[in-house]
Prior knowledge:
The protein is mainly α. The protein contains 12 helices and no strands. Helix 7 packs antiparallel against helix 8 (123-133) and helix 10 (156-170) packs across helix 12.
Amino acid sequence: xxxxxxxxxxxKEIFEKVAGAIKEAPENYVEKLAxxxxxxxxxxxxxxxxxxxxxTIRNDNEKYLVAYxxxxxxxxxxxxxxxxxxxxxxxxxxxxxxxxxxxxxDNLKHLLLYGLExxxxxxxxxxDLAYFHEFRNVLAELIQAYLWACARENDMDRFSQLVSSFxxxxxxxxxxxxxxxxxxxxxxxxKREVIRSVRRQLESDSSPESIEF
Length: 213
């Protein structure tokens, strides 16, 4: 949602480059990353943060959701439906809602977990929880949500997407989602084969030869 598809693709590309650099030069990966064009710097002024602070409410749905985030109402189907409506809006107010992610808002967390109880295999809600995790540690909840989603999903194409996202969203924390899934999926099953296929693809993507400029 607030980590849109284009941004997710950029993060995936960066992840693959970083993984390749670390694999090629584990003892001196900082220098290797510099060779690949990465620059280490601190921004004194974060343009995105400025946009978030300047964001204003533009419609009734946003007003309703902000009221929920501020604790003026309880989580409910109506709140979730309103959130999903804004999530799929062509005119999503990214700065307004992004600020609640960055502040690790409790009520936003509860809404995401509530939504995943209702729609456990929704990869969009899982991605939102992963984005939330970037600002507030909810690794245990994220892992549990992905494991439950993978257990419930029976479409192998969607399962493959879940497995890949599970790995990418938790690997920065040192969690091996593929290994964990292999422990719970029966040997010889279709799901086990999908996991192996995703592992091969990820290993191929992270190899130095696969990095294009």
